[in-house]
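Annex B. Sample input.
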Amino acid sequence: MKIIATILAVSLSALSALSAQDSFKVGNFTFKPEKSWVIGKTSSHMVKAALNHSKKDGPLLKFYHFGEGQGGGVEANIQRWKRQFENGEAKVLPENKTFGDQKLTVVTMTGTYMVGPMMARNKTATPEYMLIGAIIPHPSGDVFLKMLGKEADLKKTKADFEKLIASAFEKAAK
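Annex B, continued. Sample output.
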């Protein structure tokens, strides 16, 4: 158990040492954030990387990868994310996109988000919230991106969010 904790601590400290210009790998994909992203902090072993938009306390984007056959597929995650809104009601806009040869789904949800720990009964209703997510399928395990925040703030991040995804599919210059 101590070995796992040590490995996790070293991994997290290495990631937090990245500047906004450094690339990082999640699953089979390498992302190259632009200056609009700041390396964020995460307190969960499930989150493989985190970025804040614009500033250290800006909207937080979390990256997840659970391994081959894990984490559910596109529809399961859309439904799971939707249930995080009050009464499972959110305006959902899924978009199927292609970057290079890679097909993926970008999802935007708006409504009253229920803030609190995943399994908590008592959560705080937070109106005018937005979720921007992406599900990138891959045989070695899908990668999930999820960012939450006030709708007004997240609307400003959507273009940068998609540029960040596209960075994982740009061909390296030869």
